[in-house]
């Protein structure tokens, strides 16, 4: 869930070294406030690669806190259209992941569409504070698909417990895949073997009844690496789905990847980000992360 910094024999960070490159046998997770040896940006569209080599959005996955609890903070940091990387602008945000009771789940997300959103599960009844509802995975992990129908709903605050909950099929697995990545400075493209956790979150209790799907890839040493949004053509409630599907296909900013296929017939990819467009720090020029969430939520 968190990205790592490569260390030398004296435990000093290697600026610019990526976790999957040779010479990264020693590493440790990065935390909020650490100088970053690299930042993960999304791939630019083919028509924008020359003018936006660092893409549109950066995403760091760092150890931090949410309401005083240890959490992994996975940020969404826009840097185009008058917005700047590392500065909190309109549309920036992230998701906080809690590791509790052998599971990884997110009680909080923030984005340009919904703002700050709390996701609660029925565990919020009788207990103060957020009860993570957006499940990503639970132990034990396996290379076979595991699944669970979770029940969740949005709330206006971490202490609000909704009266009703909506079922959502969630399934996950691990695998070693060839992860596509891009050198932001040159545009060179390659692939690296990376152990990933793939997590699928359906908008319904089953694949056959869901109207949409969100799919996530978390890479060992990288944290959040890719996200996809799929819509079912017959059940979708998204009005712009055909236009969005056409735009994402024409952009070519989401290269082919293992487990990136439709879950069944009748599904179309409408949105995607691949945060493996790597921006490296220089020896005397460390990078900084987006300050998120707001101080009162840490």
How would you characterize the overall build of this protein?
With 298 residues, this protein is mainly beta. It has one domain. Helices cover 4% and strands 43% of the residues. It is built from 1 helix and 17 strands. It has one helix spanning 241-251, and strands spanning 4-6, 27-29, 38-41, 57-58, 61-66, 69-78, 93-100, 103-111, 115-120, 134-138, 146-155, 166-183, 189-202, 212-219, 223-232, 267-274, 277-280. The protein has a 15-stranded mixed sheet that branches. It has a two-stranded antiparallel sheet with strand order 1-2. Strand 7 and strand 8 (103-111) form a beta hairpin. The protein is globular. The protein starts with a strand and ends in an 18-residue tail after the last strand. The mean pLDDT is 95.
List the helices and strands and how they pair.
Blueprint: E1 4-6, E2 27-29, E3 38-41, E4 57-58, E5 61-66, E6 69-78, E7 93-100, E8 103-111, E9 115-120, E10 134-138, E11 146-155, E12 166-183, E13 189-202, E14 212-219, E15 223-232, H1 241-251, E16 267-274, E17 277-280
Parallel strand pairs: 12-17
Antiparallel strand pairs: 1-2, 3-17, 4-6, 5-6, 6-7, 7-8, 8-9, 8-10, 9-11, 11-12, 12-13, 13-14, 14-15, 15-16
């Amino acid at each position: 869930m968190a990205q790592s910094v490569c260390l030398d024999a004296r435990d000093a960070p290697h600026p610019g070294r990526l976790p999957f490159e040779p010479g990264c046998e020693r590493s440790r997770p990065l935390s909020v406030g650490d100088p970053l040896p690299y930042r993960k940006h999304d791939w630019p569209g083919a028509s924008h690669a020359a003018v936006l080599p660092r893409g549109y959005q950066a995403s760091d996955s760092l150890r931090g806190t949410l309401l005083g609890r240890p959490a992994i903070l996975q940020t969404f940091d826009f840097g185009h259209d008058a917005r700047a990387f590392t500065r909190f602008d309109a549309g920036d945000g992230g998701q906080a992941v809690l590791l509790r009771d052998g599971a990884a789940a997110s009680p909080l997300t923030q984005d340009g569409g919904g703002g700050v959103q709390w996701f609660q599960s029925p565990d919020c009844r009788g207990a103060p504070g957020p009860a993570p509802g957006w499940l990503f995975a639970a132990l034990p992990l396996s290379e076979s698909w595991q699944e669970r129908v979770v029940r969740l709903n949005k709330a206006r605050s971490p202490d609000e417990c909704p009266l009703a909950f909506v079922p959502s099929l969630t399934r996950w697995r691990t695998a070693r895949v060839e992860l596509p990545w891009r050198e932001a400075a040159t545009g060179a493209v390659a692939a690296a073997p990376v152990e990933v956790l793939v997590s699928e979150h359906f908008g319904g209790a089953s694949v056959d009844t869901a109207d949409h799907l969100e799919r996530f890839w978390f890479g060992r040493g990288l944290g959040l690496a890719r996200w996809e949004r799929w819509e079912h053509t017959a059940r979708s409630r998204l009005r712009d789905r055909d236009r969005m599907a056409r735009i994402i296909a024409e952009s070519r900013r989401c290269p082919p990847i293992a487990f990136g296929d439709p879950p069944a017939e009748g599904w179309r990819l409408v949105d995607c980000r691949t945060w493996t467009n790597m921006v490296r720090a220089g020896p005397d020029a460390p990078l900084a992360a987006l300050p998120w969430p707001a101080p009162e939520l840490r």
